[in-house]
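Complex 318.
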Amino acid sequence: KFVARPIIIDTDAGVDDALALILALRSPEVSVEAITTVAGNVEVDKCTRNVAYVLDLLRPDSRPMLAEGSRRPLKKKLITAPEVHGRDGLGNIGLRRPRKLRVRRDAVDVILESCRQFGKRLTIVALGPLTNLAKAAQKNIRTLKMAGRIVSMGGALRVPGNTGPVSEFNYFVDPEAAQLVLNAGLKVTVVPLDLTQQVVVMRREIEYRAKRRASKLGNFILRSTRHYMRYHMAAEGFDGGYLHDPIAVACVIQPSLIRTTRNRIDVETKGDLTRGMTVAARPPAVWRAIQRPGAAVDVATSLDREGFLKLFHERLWQ
Ligand code: BDR
Ligand code: CA
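Predicted structure with calcium ion bound:
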């Protein structure tokens, strides 16, 4: 009998996070048990509101548990990305806080409770800075280790950064948390920029699909991605946007979409230029000799782009 995989999504609820949430909530292969929020793209209260907004659009009645988490990184001051995601995190489209919003305030406990409840069947998908997961590790590493897998979108290994010259946003915002989670002996899959920048969705494609399937959700996707795509036009020179977080979710829905390599990754916590940089041991023979027990992760190194885009559009516009 087919059983959906229980997952929890930890998110800083920007534009691509919202697309990732929609993808997850519309995929029968996974069952979203809880959504936890973390400061990143925007302040954490805005993240929580954005998640609630997406849940309202998709699941007016039965919704997964929503829990607000860390307001700031472990040690650094919070840096947000309004230029990418808009001041509200969803492209400045004037969202109101949904009424009757039931939110817990203890994301870290929700994460640990889910680990206890679902054990190794549980996958945690982290789409923002790793602050909540680092705190969960600090609070009770044995319980966090019960989770079958943590998928973290973050890092830039062989490509330049998108925030610092060599650093990806999520790990730049909270490098101490990333360093802790990637070196705690947890079962982590890192989905870096190297992979996520291989796929772009163009504005004309979104417009075309939104027009063909006129709906509240389609309209939301169209409006919320406009600002994000304008940013990519200015920064990258194409009229579209990257799908970082949906790719991380897709890896859980359909694991055959990616291939991974085992490696050790350290995250630089210091330096204006290098903060958040991911440094992988290489070549493999060297790291095998120097590895600390347990401190290795699976790094996603190749992606079936067409397979991903097919899944993404099928589920989003169904
Ligand atoms: C990551 O940073 C955020 O802006 C995106 O939501 C994604 O999680 C990409 O670097
Ligand atoms: Ca994100």
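The chain has 13 helices and twelve strands.
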